[in-house]
Specification:
The protein has 245 residues and is α/β, with parallel strands linked by helices. The chain is 44% helix and 16% strand. It has a single domain, classed as NAD(P)-binding Rossmann-like Domain (Rossmann fold, 3-Layer(aba) Sandwich), CATH 3.40.50.
């Protein structure tokens, strides 16, 4: 119960890695506010978590919506200790085919959404005895591939953003770190594996011979949220099993 008594907000927490992280936090004793756009996707988690978990409909692109999310979590659970800014999307395609609207859509969710979430959370996190900001990057932040320019660009930007935030918020008692999952058998990773032509390019890079599990990413997220990571700040933690890129 490493997170007993802690309160966490997980954006994009109804499915994929966000859901796995929320489940990991609940198992470690935290109270969790999961945020997303689809309330029905949260039903099973809400039922299993009883009074420990709640859902708040949120579009992270909207700063007022993220502020309301953080305020609601703090009021309902009595504070805020952990923010996991996980919400993200990908619109694949060559840059010659992507529209400006598609480019902006990825940036608004993956980058501006993280900014909105972190900005709204700071005043609440600094009241904690160990505030935590955890952002989500990707293996594709540092190992770019063709056909994913908006996603690669936003994830690389998130890593730089996280390091800057770490410097700013450290004097307030808040650490800021980033998780960079590799090829995980969850969420976007499942969709990637279903595209045989694309997956053929990547499966040979898995030095452990398998994709990662959502639970393995959640375990890293628990570490970054716990007291065990109290002197870890501005770090990008890769969870990829080792990649032969």
């Amino acid at each position: 119960m490493r997170l007993k008594g802690k309160v966490a907000v997980v954006t994009g927490g109804t499915r994929g890695l966000g859901r796995r992280i929320a489940e990991g936090y609940l198992a470690e004793g935290a109270s969790v506010m999961i945020a997303g756009r689809d309330a029905s996707a949260a039903a099973a988690l809400l039922e299993a978590g009883a009074s420990q978990v709640a859902f708040h409909p949120t579009d992270v692109r909207d700063p007022q919506a993220t502020a309301e999310l953080i305020k609601t979590a703090s009021e309902q659970f009595g504070g805020l200790d952990i923010l996991v800014a996980n919400a993200g999307i990908s619109i694949p395609g060559p840059i010659t085919a992507l529209s400006t609207q598609q480019w902006n859509e990825v940036l608004s969710v993956n980058l501006t959404g993280v900014f909105n979430s972190v900005q709204a959370a700071v005043e609440h996190l600094e009241r904690s005895d160990g505030g935590r900001v955890i952002t989500m990057s990707s293996v594709l932040a540092s190992r770019a591939v063709a056909g994913a320019a908006p996603y690669c660009a936003t994830k690389a930007a998130i890593e730089a953003f996280t390091r800057s935030v770490a410097l700013e918020l450290a004097p307030r008692g808040i650490t800021s770190n980033c998780l960079a999952p590799g090829f995980i058998d969850e969420g976007m990773g499942v969709a990637l594996q279903r595209n045989e032509a694309v997956w053929l390019r990547f499966r040979g890079k898995l030095s452990m011979g398998r994709t990662g599990l959502g639970e393995e990413v959640a375990a890293a997220a628990v570490f970054l949220a716990s007291a065990e990571s109290s002197y870890v700040n501005g770090h990008v933690l890769e969870v990829n099993g080792g990649l032969a890129w």
